[in-house]
């Protein structure tokens, strides 16, 4: 099923008015992660607790005792975002509080790599948290090092020319979907209403919810600050980053049918790809086409499957 979003028009956005990201934060100019957090808190509202591991946002939020968010924040070790969020949820349950959203907000390094063990454990237990990975495709805060979220051909400080990253990006949503969690989705800062809707849907679901948010990073992507949203939109419109949802690991919904613009402009606007030759760009084109064939096959397969069987009532885990 495809639901086409209206073209981006700031006059037609219907986002909550309350803004819980204060001025004075420490994000770089044009930072997509700052915009992502602003949208996330608009979606979830003031009754939210945010857990932030070591990542760009651990700096953006500001030095103790100051912080830029209008909600409680717990900063934790690099690998512990998911389990720390699960601990907060358990503490709220003891207090009888089910009206507070617990949001783990981590970068790709703390999600795809260093934090994956704790994340996998939390989702296997189906802990009732919302986990957002804001993905700028490298360890940007510590110097633009390669992560497993770094795409093919990208320059980083640990994959400098001519030894740029030869491997494809890890598909984190598919890995999380295979844990059979209630809800996993992709989102983009260039499609704010879609991101807000997905967060609000996630809040209404018990169990683990995972959202993979693609963001632009001018410093790490070597792009112009004014092009942050444009590049994020190109990531979607070229097919590099599909917008879709997965429920219980089987039922897929495509949220947006892209225009499939040629990927050349997307690559040219980012200095991290300036070394790619025509053979490399053709490989990227072919990879996009192949990934979309795979995604459409999963959508079709899921449409023909019944809902997964419910476990016996006596073995159903207690929900907070």
Structure description:
The protein has 320 residues and is an alpha/beta fold. It has one domain: 3-Layer(aba) Sandwich (Rossmann fold). 34% of the residues lie in helices and 13% in strands. The protein is built from eleven helices and eight strands. α1 crosses α7 and α3 packs parallel to α5. The two termini are 32 Å apart. The N terminus is likely disordered.
In short:
The chain is of the alpha/beta class and 320 residues long.
Keywords:
8-stranded mixed β-sheet, Rossmann fold, 8 strands, 320 residues, alpha/beta, 11 helices, 34% helix
Strand content: 5-15%
For the record, the CATH class is Alpha Beta
Number of helices: 11
Largest beta-sheet characterization: 8 strands, mixed
CATH topology: Rossmann fold
**Count of domains:** 1
- The Cα radius of gyration reads 19 Å
The secondary-structure class comes to: alpha/beta
Number of DSSP-assigned strands:
8
User: What is the 3D form?
Assistant: globular
pLDDT averaged residue by residue? 92
CATH-defined superfamily: Thiamin diphosphate (ThDP)-binding fold, Pyr/PP domains
Q: Please tell me the CATH architecture by its name.
A: 3-Layer(aba) Sandwich
Query: How far apart lie the N and C ends?
Result: 32 Å
Outline the low-pLDDT stretches: 1-6
The proportion of residues forming helix, as a percent range, comes to: 25-40%
Strand line-up across the major sheet: 2-1-3-4-6-5-7-8
The helix/strand series, from N terminus to C terminus, equals: HEHEHEHHEHEHEHHEEHH
